[in-house]
Amino acid sequence: MKALALFSGGLDSLLSMHLVASQDIEVIALHFNIGFGGNKDKREYLQKASAQVGAQILFCDIQEQFFNEVLFRPKYGYGKYFNPCIDCHANMFRQAFYKLLELQADFVISGEVLGQRPKSQRREAMDQVKKLVRAFGQESCFDSLLDRQGNNPNKPQFLDQLLLRPMSAQLLEPSFMEKQSWVDRTRLWDVQGRSRVRQLAKIKELGLEHYENPSGGCLLTDLSVSQKLKDLQAHRQSTQQTMVVQDNVIVKVGRYMVVGGARCVVARNELENVKLDMEHPLMDRIELLDCKGPLGLVEKHASAQEKSLAAQIVLGYAKSQPDMFYRVQVGDVLLRLSPMHKEEARKYLFMG
């Protein structure tokens, strides 16, 4: 028997894997990168954390699919910010079930706790996720897993019946796996609410060293990122352009600026220089040729005046002298400019 687990890296998803793995079921942890999971590289931590409970981990990059198919068209809307949590959860299950077919696994598990998160883990929200999972379960690729007529007791009728939430399983309708005795329901938990006393006690009992408390680490719940996304989406629409997946970088990284009728992003440190050093179909690079400083991006459709202004802003954050002129490459154009004073440049900051 083999289970695929959605693994965020948090305490609950780690324990949910333990509850299943301790029943002699092979567990493979799936960590989905949607592009908004934070700027910190957690790869090493995730490997160590999953290994503690005997799970192999697979890293799955679904940034482009999430950006193009989910982020701007959620059936169940957004939370307080730009977070389509219900649709995002269902989409992760969708991708997990595609992996289930590929890896010939048997079911999918999740570390969700009933009532822990106000948007996505209410019973009503879980039912909404169930509807979405059941809907995409109609895809023909899942025919081999299901008995769609409901006549075969050895196969579930609907795909959502192959989804298990071990942390709160005893408070939810029994899954197909429990009914078939693939999983012992009595060894699953009945946790609900925001308290983590029981989880932390279990972590101590098991001697696990690598775990994280749930912290809502998704950047789509960050006010600054969500406001930038809203602004950039509206701006792209006003200029008859479509959002592209590379836009997820420029709302997370650097100083986001409004320069006339254009948008500009300026790195704040060397790490951000690396992240902004990319090919963006709608943005031109702003590169300093005569002094050390940040990398910038400005929209290709910006006017010559706006591009010059953006270049002066980038120079202002560089190791430059106020009365000197420097060469700056903006896309295919070479400019010779003096830097803008930082105090003046700050006026162009979005939400500044």
DSSP, total strands? 11
**Chain-averaged pLDDT:** 94
Largest sheet: 6 strands, antiparallel
> Which spans of ≥5 residues are poorly predicted at pLDDT below 50?
none
Distance between the termini: 54 Å
Gyration radius, rounded: 24 Å
Oligomer: single chain
Task: Give the CA-based shape.
Answer: elongated
List key phrases describing it.
5-stranded parallel beta sheet; 6-stranded antiparallel beta sheet; 34% helix
Task: Please characterize this protein's 3D structure.
The protein has 352 residues and is of the alpha/beta class. It is 34% helix and 15% strand. The chain is built from 12 helices and 11 strands. The strands form 2 sheets. Strands 6-7-9-8-10-11 form a 6-stranded antiparallel beta sheet, sandwiched between helices. Strands 3-2-1-4-5 form a 5-stranded parallel beta sheet, with helices on both faces. Helix 4 packs across helix 5. The longest helix has 19 residues. The chain is elongated. The protein starts with a strand and ends in a 7-residue tail after the last helix.
Write the layout of secondary structure elements.
Elements: E1 2-6, H1 11-21, E2 26-33, H2 43-52, E3 56-61, H3 63-71, H4 85-103, E4 107-109, H5 123-136, E5 163-164, H6 176-179, H7 197-206, H8 223-238, H9 247-250, E6 255-259, E7 262-266, H10 270-276, E8 283-288, E9 296-299, H11 304-316, E10 326-330, E11 333-337, H12 342-345
Parallel strand pairs: 1-2, 1-4, 2-3, 4-5
Antiparallel strand pairs: 6-7, 7-9, 8-9, 8-10, 10-11
